[in-house]
Backbone:
């Protein structure tokens, strides 16, 4: 049991470090190949975070799509993509709470964007 726990922890740490290192080196094809190689023991949020930290939203979106919808909404908000977050929230359970979070992060002066988000919310 102890051997297994050490191995699993080591595997998780290896995946986390490799994902961050590949993103830092901006080796996007290799990062994608690594993510697709086998099921990630750390999930795909660390891949998203690594891409965001290294200023590549396009790459991050590839991994966001592998997350549960609630996490997708959070990631899209982290990437300053509130419309995409709203579209994803519409498909998620408990979407009303997600829409409130999205709207709370959009400036009150940005009425056009707020209207778009509310239209998505109301399925228009």
Residues:
């Amino acid at each position: 049991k102890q051997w297994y726990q050490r191995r699993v922890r080591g595997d998780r740490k290896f995946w986390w470090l490799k994902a961050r290192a590949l993103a830092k080196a901006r080796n996007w094809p290799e990062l994608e190949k690594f993510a697709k190689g086998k099921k990630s023991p750390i999930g795909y949020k660390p891949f998203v975070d690594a891409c965001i930290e290294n200023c590549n939203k396009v790459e991050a979106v590839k991994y966001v799509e592998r997350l549960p919808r609630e996490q997708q909404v959070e990631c899209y908000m982290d990437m300053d993509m509130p419309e995409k977050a709203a579209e994803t929230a519409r498909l998620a359970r408990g979407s009303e709470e997600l829409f409130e979070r999205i709207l709370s992060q959009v400036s009150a002066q940005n009425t056009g964007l707020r209207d778009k988000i509310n239209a998505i919310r109301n399925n228009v």
About this structure: The mean pLDDT is 88. The first helix runs from residue 2 to 24. The chain is about 75% helix and 0% strand.
